[in-house]
Amino acid sequence: MNEVDFANKIASLGGRAYIVGGWMRDILRDYPPKDKDYMICHLKEATFKENFPEAKRIGKSFPVYLLNIDGKNCEVAFARKEKKAGHGYKGFETTCDEKITLEEDLYRRDTTMNAIAYDILSEKILDPYNGLEDIKKKRIKAISNHFADDPVRALRAARQASEFNFTVTKNTLDLMYKCKDEFFYEPQERIFDELKKALSTEYPSKFFRVLEQANLLEVLFPEIHALIGKTQPEYFHPEGDAFEHTMEIVDLIAGMTSDLAVRFAGLVHDIGKGATPLEMLPHHYGHERIGENILLKWNERMTLPKKWLQGGLFVIKEHMRAGRLKKISKIVDLLLDVEKNPLGFEGFNCVILADSKGLPYYLADYKSYLKKLHDVSIKDCPKDIKGKKIGDWIRQQRIKVFSQEAE
Fold first, then answer.
1. Hey, which of 1, 208, 302, 399 has its CA 20 to 30 A from 168?
2. Is cis: bond before 32, omega within 30 of 0?
3. What's the predicted TM-score (pTM) here?
């Protein structure tokens, strides 16, 4: 069944079918769209089920079905209205019947650019809340005060600002702030999901900057907010405080790799600076050790992927040492440690390069040095060396080999 046949069948039953949501938004901003979402008005669910027996209901709180249209399983939802009746994303009373209009359904959505519909049969764009104008002006604007009913809308607005390089209107920022108390009822998984999507964008820093504009950064990511105002030696950091430095680094790394664990490592590499006493500023002695503890506490609040946590802890601990090491034994140890870390050399080097604007010789040519280190074999160990001393022998031989290679 193709899309037009589907729409004609819905119309023959007395209803109307539309394309809504992100597909319309992306088409209008001249960006490759993803999956189509359909919405039906003026049709009873029972009538739909009777005439589309192959459709599978997937919505629990309100009717949403999966139906094969144009060879793809697409979501088909019925027009609905929502009323806030409790806390969190589950705290809604939903009304769904054949009397609800297209305009009423679109009104419950978050922003104007997400409240545009396409009438399949008339081929007309229906834009009751001027979303097209906001897309043209590259701005994110809440449809109404209902925006604040679901706190994750605030996160989504910040993330889409980062993803689309849009600005957020002042009124929308104010509504984002009204979500503040609601976040205490939100599962951390929903917050993490938006963080993950934000780190996937070209300029992740905009996500955090918009949250700060809405006075939500301290609530959602206190570790990042704590960096604001933490001054640094201007000679090394002309970009500004630790927050500005971190924002610069995460964007630079985003331009180097799509690996989200590496981008996250860049985000947290200096989080220890957020706990630096004011009297110590602009210096941040010992921020590496402090940063490890801060990240571990972050993980207690919001369980992070194993690669993110291990990579972040390693970068926090080692990013300052990497460019300062002179002793061959310590360089050898670090090379072997980087190799074992889930970020690997490609990831670790991204952070060091962004942070230090260069790589020490042993990281720049790590493949050559690693090969020499791994050429040292236990088979060459003298027979009279036993137990733990075998590992000591291998390490000393590797130090010797590295010294010869570096000469």
1. 302
2. no
3. 0.88
Neighbour-count burial of 352, counting CB atoms closer than 10 A to its CB (0-12 exposed, 13-18 middle, 19+ buried): buried
HSE of 220 in the Cβ direction (CA atoms, 13 Å)? 32
Q: Decide: 381 and 390 in contact? Cβ < 8 Å.
A: yes
Q: What is the CA radius of gyration of the chain?
A: 27
Alpha helices of 34-185 — where are they, by DSSP H?
Answer: 45-51, 102-107, 131-136, 152-164, 170-177
Cα 75 to the chain's mean position, in Å?
24
Last residue of a domain, one of 137, 163, 183: 137
- How many domains, in total, are found in the chain? 2
Taking only the tens place, the pLDDT of each residue in 127-181 is 999 999 999 999 999 999 989 888 999 999 999 999 999 999 999 999 999 999 8
The one-letter amino acid at 347: G
Domain, as residue range, for 391: 374-406
β-bridge pairing 72-78 and 37-41: parallel
CB 366 within 8 A of CB 332: no
Structure tokens that stand for 245 in this block: 């430095």
> What SS3 class is residue 115?
coil
